Amino acid sequence: MQLDYPVKYLVHHLANIRSMGMAAVRNSNPLTRPASLPQLPVNLEQSIQPMPNALIDSYVQWSGADPERYTAHVPAHFCSHFAMPLLANLGSLAPYNLLALLNQGVRIEILKPVERDRPLHLSGSLMDVSVEPDRVRIHTQVRVLNAQHELSMVIDSYSTVPQGKPSQRKSNKPTDDATAFTTVGSWSAEFHDGLNFAMLTGDFNPIHTWPAVGRRSRFKTLILHGFGQLARTFECVQNIGYTIVGLDVRWIKPLTLPNANLSVQVGERADIDGWRGIRLLASDGSVHMVGRFLGKGA
């Protein structure tokens, strides 16, 4: 597979790989995973040292953003690097197999830009775990505080662990509703983008990075990280003049690799609070990500 970013970036991800790997291995074994759900919420803390500028610059380039947009700041969606280990550790407090976990959606509130060359403090909580007939829903939250201990971001992550026979899936074709959408940009995902995204964020889940695993999966190929979809879609919207300060999206269909000519669409009208619809469509019209964003400008 083609690798567009240097292997030396791995050194910046060792803590991430260790945290996420240990959480996945521990919870995959019934003997080592938690025996029961703790009283909620459960809180964890983590301090993050300043992230290397070369890594941030490469990630900005991969996401399709204008480099001038992030000369002093870190993209909010780079939480896929700095917040993911804490989210994984929080999820591992639930007594379920994390190897079967599926990311369903994320809500991000951006209060202050995350500055480069500054440490961060993360305060995380396992907020809720609800059991349904065919799945377990897990809600985790990370609050990002800057060097002045001011709240910069709130990240709410929603995931599921399948249980038993899945319920009937709904169609992922666009539905006719009152919202009219306009295509504002497009992007394509190459077969090696799963590995490149992992080299930039530290998320080396095999379904995104190992072709042999992809071929043996129900998708018959690799799939792109949900946060990879989010990053490129986020920047497509910002490239037309919006500054996104809030986002609430769901991933409803895995994005197989490669995948060309993906369309980013936004709602033509905002609601009374300023939120506007957003969705990512494949060339066949199927929807992969859907939700809304709160933006300034445009």
Q: Report low-confidence residues grouped into runs of 5 or more.
A: none
Q: How far is the N terminus from the C terminus?
A: 39 Å
Instruction: Count the domains.
Output: 2
| Strands ordered across the widest β-sheet | 1-5-6-7-3-9-12-11-10-8
Average pLDDT score = 92
CATH superfamily of the largest domain: Hotdog Thioesterase
CATH class category name of the largest domain? Alpha Beta
Compute the number of strand runs.
12
Rg from alpha-carbon coordinates: 19 Å
Which fold name is given in CATH as the topology of the largest domain? Thiol Ester Dehydrase, Chain A
What is the global morphology? globular
Order of helices and strands: HEHEHHEEEEEEHHHHEEEE
Largest sheet report = 10 strands, antiparallel
Helix content: 10-25%
**Tally of separate helices:** 8
CATH architecture of the largest domain: Roll
User: How big a fraction of the residues is strand?
Assistant: 25-35%
| Helix/sheet category | alpha+beta
Domain MaoC-like: 193-264
InterPro entries: HotDog_dom_sf, MaoC-like_dom
Protein name: MaoC family dehydratase
